[in-house]
Amino acid sequence: MAKGKIEINEVNCKSCKLCVNFCSNKCIEISSDKFNPNGFLIPVFINEENCTGCGICGWMCPECIIDVYKYIEN
User: Fold this and answer.
1) Which long-range contacts (CB under 8 A, 24 or more apart) does 46-54 make?
2) 0.90 exceeded by pTM
3) Which of 3, 26, 53, 65 has the smallest number of CB atoms closer than 10 Å to its CB?
4) Can you tell me the distance from the alpha carbon of 66 to that of 57, in angstroms, rounded to the nearest whole number?
5) What percent of the chain lies above the pLDDT cut of 90?
6) Residue 73 binned pLDDT confidence (cut-offs 50, 70, 90)
7) Per-residue b/e over 5-17, b at no fewer than 16 CB within 10 Å?
8) Is the pLDDT of residue 43 over 70?
């Protein structure tokens, strides 16, 4: 079961790929065919079951477009 989830504000992404490079669980990849209004390829949240909600993708994003949510088990 996933321990985290991310939401990406695709409109402001500049496709720098830092989120992809720093995700140790390989939960993000750059789309090969989906562009934002500015013409940049956008990141896509994949392998959702592997997300730990660590937040590194959000910290590394220079545009601050990634919101990270971590599930807390009771």
Assistant:
1) 48/2, 48/5, 49/1, 49/2, 50/2, 50/25, 50/26, 51/2, 51/3, 51/4, 51/5, 51/6, 51/25, 51/27, 52/3, 52/4, 52/25, 53/3, 53/4, 53/5, 54/4, 54/24
2) no
3) 26
4) 7
5) 89
6) confident
7) ebebebeebebee
8) yes
DSSP secondary structure code for residue 45 in this structure: E
Asked if residue 25 has pLDDT above 70, the reply is yes
- Give, rounded to a whole angstrom, the gap between the first and last alpha carbons of the chain: 14
CA dihedral 56, 24, 9, 66 (to 10 degrees): -10
What sign for the dihedral angle of Cα 35, 40, 6, 1?
A: positive
Residue 1: predicted pLDDT: 65
